[in-house]
Design brief:
mainly beta, globular
């Protein structure tokens, strides 16, 4: 990811995991939010496997600005306590699909049971012609309740399901 870019992404809930998803590589992810503005802009810390990132994301749904920089483990450790109470834990399985990659996020902790498939695209046109796969459920791209910046403060998964 370049330090500054547009993220074009669609998200789908997954109720039935694809049968072969465990054959694909996965990484544990912990992320926490340092700041979330009322308009939805957010600053987040993420540890993905052994890599560490500081990311600024704009508000929005399918198309958002994203600026991400790699940081050191020490920098992550200094900032991490400031995310207390605003964290998410998940495993990400990366499934190749033609020229695309499907990021299958299997949430843990208070969000256990939530599974979201995210697909990033090179253009809005490519995103709009994508047909969801058989195992993908309801599309939640336009539903802000399924953005990680909202999910980080959900107390229990039932609080989210009630909005579908």
């Amino acid at each position: 990811m370049t330090p500054q870019s547009k993220e074009i992404e669609r998200r789908f809930l997954v109720r039935n995991l694809p049968p072969d998803y465990l054959q694909y590589p996965s990484l544990p992810i912990v992320q926490g939010y340092l700041a979330i503005e009322e308009n939805g802009n957010a600053v987040r810390l993420r540890r993905m496997g052994g890599d560490f990132f500081l990311t600024v994301k704009s508000s929005g749904t399918m198309v958002r600005e994203e600026r991400e920089i790699a940081i050191s483990a020490d920098q992550f450790d200094v900032l991490w306590p400031n995310t207390e109470g605003r964290r998410i834990v998940k495993d990400r399985h990366v499934i190749p699909y033609g020229y695309l990659k499907i990021e299958l996020d299997v949430f843990k902790g208070k969000l256990k049971g939530l599974i979201v498939a995210e697909i990033e695209f090179e253009s809005v046109a490519a995103a709009l012609v994508f047909q969801k796969l058989e195992w993908m459920g309801i599309e939640v791209t336009e539903n802000p309740l399924f953005n990680n910046r909202y999910l980080q403060h959900v107390e229990k998964l039932e609080d989210v399901w009630g909005f579908l």
